[in-house]
Design brief:
The chain is mainly beta and 121 residues long. Helices cover 12% and strands 44% of the residues.
């Protein structure tokens, strides 16, 4: 009986897990209500800055914090004031859309951090 309860618990937790690209996102466990999250990026023609558009859906009304960290072509972080933690209020079953622009044209990669509390680094 214990094995059956354990198996059902694992299945239930896995079914509620958010699927996302772990190379682009770091999402803390206190944001389990985010059911979908995606990132699409492109290079802005006017200045060759990378722009990332983050979209998703939450299953409940809540407040989260997100931060986009930018990296150069060698993988070194780019320090910028634009990489600060940003508060976002989410509505249940309503899509959210966040946009972040690289601090300069040398930014080639990024990582999005999402948490239930302000992100400090």
């Amino acid at each position: 009986m214990k094995k059956l309860i354990m198996a059902l618990s694992i299945v239930a937790l896995t079914a509620c897990a958010t699927e996302y690209d772990k190379t682009k996102f770091h999402i803390t466990s206190d944001t389990y209500y985010i059911s979908e999250v995606f990132a699409n990026d492109h290079i802005r023609e006017s200045d060759n800055f990378k722009v990332v558009n983050i979209t998703g859906v939450a299953s409940s009304d809540t407040t989260v914090y997100y931060r986009v960290l930018w990296y150069d072509e060698n993988g070194a972080p780019i320090k910028a004031t634009t990489s600060k933690s940003t508060e976002a209020r989410l509505r249940a079953e309503q899509p959210f859309n966040w946009t972040a622009i690289a601090p300069n044209a040398s930014a080639k990669n990024y990582r999005v951090f999402i948490s239930g509390r302000p992100i400090e680094q």
